[in-house]
Specification:
With about 230 residues, the chain is an alpha+beta fold. The chain has seven helices and ten strands.
């Protein structure tokens, strides 16, 4: 069972080169993220081929190693919230699409008075970073969900066919999906948050907190019925 909230963006295959990695990182750094937040917070990276985390290494090393190894992850911070940027833009094995992901531990989805941390604020940041990456990547489709691994998520075949059968807590519909489902239908859905995106896409968020499973599932049924995707 996953204790994380993940945002996944599915993209057409792109070489995992330094230019692409730097571009993704620049989007997050300009949005307020940092790689080296302080003396007692660690940043580091994971290499898919080496299969291990390397802590307190230069960001330039992370970019170089991940580009050589064809994928990996980088540990970043936004304030006191730590998260992992997953970088796998070129499909492997049986996969058909590349994936760029953001992973946040469930602890950030709860109020923590000792940290002066509000779940509502953190969720706003998570969605903001998702919107920034969506704008940069122009993905085929994107979603955010708590508990990937035991929650239903759209399959690659659904995404490639344009026939999404499973909504998630947050849904980044590209312009292609908006045209297929219908802009007015999406904008009038009974969801917590609906935003039009710059490229003609739409962000649809079912409920305020992805950890409130009962509320998310109730809204999921309502919105799926409204959109006629079941």
């Amino acid at each position: 069972m996953s204790d994380n909230c993940d945002i996944f963006f599915y993209i057409k295959s792109i070489d995992c080169n330094q230019r692409f990695i730097k571009g993704v990182l620049d989007v997050l750094l300009k949005a307020g993220c940092v790689y080296e937040p302080g003396d007692y917070f660690k940043s580091g990276y994971w290499s898919d081929k080496k299969g291990d985390w390397f802590w307190e290494r230069p960001l330039s090393e992370a970019i170089h190693t991940i580009s050589i190894d064809g994928g990996g992850a980088i540990n970043l911070w936004h304030g006191k919230m730590c998260f992992t940027l997953g970088i796998r833009p070129k499909p492997t094995n049986d996969e058909k699409l590349g994936i760029i992901s953001l992973t946040f531990n469930r602890v950030y989805l709860r109020d923590i008075p000792d940290w002066n941390q509000k779940a509502e604020t953190n969720i706003e940041i998570i969605l903001k970073l998702g919107r920034k990456l969506y704008e940069y990547l122009s993905p085929i489709y994107g979603f955010g969900e708590y508990g990937i691994g035991w929650r239903e998520i759209p399959s690659e075949d659904e995404i490639l066919s344009g026939n999404i059968r499973h909504l998630c807590w947050a849904n980044f519909f590209s312009r292609v999906f908006v045209q297929k489902i219908g802009r007015e239908k999406l904008l009038s859905a009974p969801a917590w948050k609906i935003e039009e995106l710059g490229d003609g896409g739409i962000l649809l968020v079912l409920a305020p907190n992805p950890m409130n499973i009962n509320e998310v599932d109730k809204k999921k049924k309502e919105v799926e019925t409204h959109l006629g995707i079941k």
